[in-house]
Amino acid sequence: MSSSELLGPLGVERDGLGIKGYLSMRDEGVTYHRMKRFYCRCVGVNFSRFASRDAASAMIAALFSAEVQKVESWDGKGLWHTYRHSFKLSLTSGVVFNVDADSEEDKRQWIEYIETALTGTEAAVEKWNAHASVSPNIMELSPGGLVFAEKKCSPPKFKNDTSCCHPGCHVRFDSTGKRQHHCRNCGGSVCSDHSSRFAMVRHFHINHAVRLCMGCYRVQRFVLWLEMLLQRLSISQTEEEGVTKPALSKADEEEVEALFAIFGDDAFGISDVIQVLHLHRHGCDEAYAYAVNKLLELSASNLADFEFFCLRFSTCG
């Protein structure tokens, strides 16, 4: 019995953001080895690969992510193996994956979704270019999403401080025996207790997860959700079925309902939403999405405060 049969029916799923499911893949080329099987998600043209199906519940947990440039046919022929449900993914980073789906139906759904996303993105980029020009120094627009960072920025130089840069942490690297790590986004020196999270920093054109300090990790999760919301909106008008609400557990539903009640207060401001984002950073993606959406709504009437927030987060201070 194959491994896929032991795992049971795990076909492609569609949720409120995009498409997800198992794909077998490897870099373009012919080798003797079989493809490796990964759990993948695609939100708009943002394609992500995860260590497991459970890890894919949080987009920021992706081990690899890049924007899809095009999807093509592939005959599925390797040196020793032939793949029956094959196609090819070309990414804007220059990486090309030979891909094999679990079934012909899964293959059809993946290709159909990606082609729809590519069509929707073309229209979205035209609309968002005008918004990106408002803050040209901190806002970078790519087909897959919005990035708050200085344009043409390069990875930071490591600071090699004698103590951890995390607020309130007094660990010193020269006396406690704690190992010094460095945040790949701000370059700060940070101890192991406050550098255990990994995420991608796309504004440095890094497509794999790297070590971040706690502050930069929260920033990247927020920016990632801006990208996800932008992508979802960009293709929703091109889908016949519209937006499908994701299935939530009872605990997730209670969390979302609690946020709805809080956000209904007219006195709820930008600083309050930022606090909610911090408190729900370990919560379900759906709750985090509502918080990000609320922040975007408030930015329309509080643009000065929102720009200050973005500038602060772009420097990850």
What does this structure look like?
The chain has 317 residues and is an alpha+beta fold. Among the domains are: 13-122, Pleckstrin-homology domain (PH domain)/Phosphotyrosine-binding domain (PTB) (PH-domain like, Roll); 247-316, no CATH class. It has 7 helices and 13 strands. It has helices at 3-7, 104-132, 214-236, 250-263, 270-279, 285-301, 303-315, and strands at residues 13-14, 19-27, 36-43, 46-50, 64-73, 86-91, 96-101, 139-142, 145-148, 181-182, 189-190, 197-199, 210-212. The strands form 4 sheets. A 6-stranded antiparallel β-barrel has the order 2-3-4-5-6-7. A two-stranded antiparallel sheet has the order 8-9.
| Helix proportion | 25-40%
Query: Kindly, what is the distance between the CA atoms of the first and last residues, rounded to a whole number of angstroms?
Result: 53 Å
**pLDDT averaged residue by residue:** 75
Task: Please state the overall shape, judged from the principal axes of the Cα atoms.
Answer: globular
Order of helices and strands: HEEEEEEEHEEEEEEHHHHH
Which structural class matches the secondary elements? alpha+beta
The CATH superfamily of the domain at 13-122 is known as Pleckstrin-homology domain (PH domain)/Phosphotyrosine-binding domain (PTB)
The largest sheet is: 6 strands, antiparallel, barrel
Domain PH: 16-119
Domain FYVE-type: 169-221
GO molecular function: phosphatidylinositol-3-phosphate binding; ubiquitin binding; zinc ion binding
Protein name: FYVE zinc finger domain-containing protein
